[in-house]
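The step that takes the researchers longest sounds almost clerical: writing a folded protein down as plain text. The outcome of that step, for a single protein, is printed below.
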Amino acid sequence: MQNKAKKDKAQTYNIVSQRSFYSDLSDTEMDYAILIRSPISKGTIRDITCPNLPEGCHLITAKEIPGKNEFTANDVTIQALGYEKISYKGEPIAILTGPDETQLKDLINEVEIKYTTSIETDENQVEKHKIFASRQIFYGESEMLYLQSALQLKKSYVSELQIAKSNENIGAFCDYSKRSLKVYSPTCWPSQLIDSICNVLGIEKKSVTVIKTNYDDATTNTVFFTNQIATLVAFASKIIEKSLRLVLTHDEMKQYIESPINVHSEYQIALEGEGTIRAMNADIRIECGAFCPFAQEIVDHIIIALSGMYRFKTYCITCYAQSSERPPLSADLQLTDFLAFFSIENLMQDIAQQLHIEPNIVRLANLGPEISKKKGASKKQNDFKLPIIIDNSPCKSVIDRVVENSDFRRKYISYSLSSKVANSKFPLKGIGMSCAFEGNGFYGESVNDVNISMQVTLDTDGSFKIVSPKPSETIVDIWKNIVTEELNIEKNKIFIVEPIETGITNLLPETVPENISILTILLKKCCKQVKKQEFRMPLPITVKKDLASNRTKKWDQKNFKGEPFFNTSWISSVVEVEIDRNTFSHNIMEIWICINAGEIYNRQTAISSVKKAVALTLKMCEPQYTHTNVPVHIEFIESKEESKEIGNLVYNALPSALTNALYVALQKDISVLPIAIDSLYYALKNDEVDANEN
């Protein structure tokens, strides 16, 4: 991500926060808007008309854009409205406005679009497979060792998942006046939205105010699309000189916004007898649609997840993001790591099956020696110079605990043996496990050039103000408890003040730099500093703490090596399933989860958060199933270490634990997500065919 923060610091952005939903806003004289979308995936739009356009309605095309028909997101230039070059089917090419929303939906069928489809040429073929971003990381001579090894394994995996947690369909409301525009949007990137509006309309920043309305804590594919829609609404409002509201339909959300990240993983590994990976060659291909503003960030996250979990003796990992004729991808960067963990954890199960070793033993064998950071550590430890250095020692503790809690070893052996008995009248049972981590504060992203900071003020009236993007109510309660404990201030005197209210503008997406665990650590440091100054300095007292600016000492972005995270949290999960041989359906019997995330401030709230993530993850993996009343056993490793993130741990670990459990029951791997409804049927039918042939 090319950071423009330093040169933009002098610029002023009019940004306000408002705790409401944009779709609830209206104006007595406002119009409604809907998008006209391209019927072709490649080509040129020649003309767009609506012969019977009623009075008061408008059909607005790219020809009416007063500024530039483009804007920039993370150095990627994107058309505001498609016209001369269409990138994907469904790309917005016009805006239809009018006072009656129902009438507009009927008018869509009367819009006439003249277009020319592109003729397939060598240039078109190259464009179809354009590489947006790539990264290769290696350690040792993995290719040579693989070719020389007598014990080899080749596997491939496909995941096509998207975590959808939208409270409302995306859209925007623009309050129009001749002097200025007020744009209400659930944006998490307000500065980019203002830049886009000004670029398309050719106006100054002071003429635009963005009012941030409610948005989801974990967005799906909306970081870019939310701003695109809001820009188009502001443009159309300016053209018709009226207030305007646009809300995407559920069908539009499904087809164009909630596009999954499609990842294909291929592995070639050489094994040693005890299950240790001697050499690994991995090729990861990510389909990013027509364009992707965050392609390099997605690639980097996946590379680190694959290379940081285990200590492979030698490896070469290549990952690249390429274009396709699907809608563009703009994924939440916090929800991409699970794509790597799904494949590597399934690979661990494959190794266990091939070598007849328990899966937990295979994982422990591949954790490798600990990397000590203490002075006087052994030469062997300090000379273990991996490109990606992550302290994975907490992984052993979560594996051991979840294995003990679930009685994993006994069940695994029992279920593995019983699943091999053909034509049994009893249900098939399986148990699977997986591990994962969540990295907090990635040093490699340019968001860290805009240092993560926490500012607090103890005012003359005894109130305590925390300057921060307002987190969830759960985190607000935790922060208030910290302040109360450290400074003995009543909770009703503690307030969260949005940075924009103090003139602090975030120039990057809030979903990227915002890291609750780091902010919580900084808050505790601020409170301790206030406590020291409270009786020595007059009120008000303002204290600001920043994330230590030593990332260049820990992380070498140019060579992509070092310690990539401020801290990491760890999880191991076990899933037990039962398959009905007659109905080809399965039930999840129990789930066990163990987490090492430092000090837990509110255990009950943390447990509720994990259970909610479990339900969402199961729905993501198996959309056709409804798993209800599944017992979920959650344990947090007791620790006084600094608090770490737990938000995405379940998404990273649970999918592969589920597929590994089905693998044990079926004795056939499930290498594709989401799990198809007929996959169990074909697996069991193939077993019957094999039994009859024998």
Observations:
- The first helix runs from residue 5 to 8.
